[in-house]
Amino acid sequence: MANSKKHVYIHFGPYDSCGVVAHRTDRLEGMQKLLKSNGHQVELSEILDRNAVELWVKGELVYNCAITDLEFGGDGLMDNLCSQALGAVDKAF
C-alpha cells in the first residue's frame, strides 16, 4: 500500500449527559488513541443520530456501537468495544 496511513472516519451523534444533549468527544478518546497507536489516521464527524458511533473505512460502515457504552477518557486498551472496533478496522484493510 503506497499510503502507510489508513484513514478511518468516526461519525458520532449527540448524547445526554447531566440533562444536556450535545456532541461530546470524551468517550471517543480511547478509541481514537487506540486507532492512532495502530497506525490509523482518524477523522471525527458529527452526525444527528443520537447516541451513535459509526466507523467508516473506504466508504463502508465497518463498526458501530452506542457512544454511552464506551469508557470515558482513557487509552482504549481496557475497553472491549475499542478492541472490537480496532479489529473491524484492521479487517477492512
CATH architecture annotation:
3-Layer(aba) Sandwich
Instruction: Kindly state the percentage of residues in helix.
Output: 10-25%
Q: How far apart are the termini?
A: 10 Å
Order of helices and strands: EEEHEEEH
> How many helices?
2
Please state the CA-atom Rg, rounded to the nearest Å: 13 Å
Oligomeric nature of the chains: single chain
Descriptive report:
The protein has about 90 residues and is an alpha+beta fold. The chain has a single domain, classed as Glutaredoxin. It is built from two helices and six strands; from the N terminus they run E-E-E-H-E-E-E-H. Strands 4-1-5-6 form a four-stranded mixed β-sheet, covered by helices on one side. Helix 1 (about 30-35) crosses helix 2 (about 80-90). The radius of gyration is 13 Å and the shape is globular. The mean pLDDT is about 95.
